[in-house]
Design a protein that fits this description.
CATH architecture of the largest domain: Orthogonal Bundle
Shape: rod-shaped
CATH superfamily of the largest domain: Winged helix-like DNA-binding domain superfamily/Winged helix DNA-binding domain
Mean pLDDT: 93
CATH class of the largest domain: Mainly Alpha
Low-confidence stretches: none
Distance between the termini: 80 Å
């Protein structure tokens, strides 16, 4: 089997965490420093060893890309998979990277669903139906979505009320008909059904009537 000799290993100018490997005096391929750590000039590599190095580097680059993507916020497994696919990695490398991320707890769809629901419920409350739709768009399977929603302790009526509190001050000067239409429409856009929104709207109206000077209602 024909072998080629490593004649130079040089750090890349734009990315010092990677090196360029030269075989028999010519550039052959780039590697991460981690993958290339055991290489020395003068060593001879077979075609099999070269292919193995390149494949190992693809795996390392894919994993680092996944970690970079996850560093901004939590992601679903499907989001990570799509990101790696856009970067041009093979299906095999993507599958292996996903499994590595899951084994290290960097990717966990149930945890992601819990975080998504908690964030939405705190800052932009919406219905269980709309939460389910959003999570499905993130690529989560139905059983994971259902489990996460079952774990949500806040009743949907309370979610609707918390959503209403973020808008009610804007409508306090309106008459009952306008107040009901505007707040009801807002809650409907958040995915709440009429059976949920109707008592919440009435509750908000009654609380405003009890304390019209207050800037908040409870």
């Amino acid at each position: 089997m024909m072998e080629k000799e490593i004649t130079s290993i040089r750090a890349q100018k734009r990315n010092p965490q990677r090196v360029n490997v030269y075989l028999d005096g010519e550039f052959a391929f780039g590697l991460s420093r981690i993958t290339a750590a055991w290489l020395k000039t003068g060593r001879k590599l077979s075609e099999t060893e070269i292919d193995k190095l390149v494949n190992e580097d693809d795996r390392e680059v894919a994993f680092q890309q996944a970690l970079h993507y996850l560093s901004f916020r939590a992601r679903s497994e499907n989001e990570v998979r799509q990101n790696l696919n856009k970067k041009g990695f093979s299906d095999l490398i993507i599958d292996e990277t996903i499994e590595k991320c899951k084994a290290s707890a960097y990717v966990n769809d149930l945890d992601f669903a819990h975080q998504w629901i908690d964030n939405r419920s705190t800052f932009r409350p919406r219905s269980l139906k709309l939460l389910s739709m959003e999570l499905r768009q993130k690529g989560l399977p139905d059983d994971t979505i259902n489990k996460a929603l079952e774990d949500l302790s806040t009743p949907e009526e309370e979610l609707a009320y918390q959503a209403a509190l973020k808008k009610v001050d804007r409508y306090r000067a309106f008459d009952w008909q306008t107040f009901r239409n505007k707040l009801g429409s807002f809650l409907a856009r958040r995915g709440f059904s009429y059976s949920v929104t109707a008592p919440v709207v009435k509750r908000c109206w009654d609380e405003l009537a009890e304390d019209p000077e207050s800037t908040t209602i409870h």
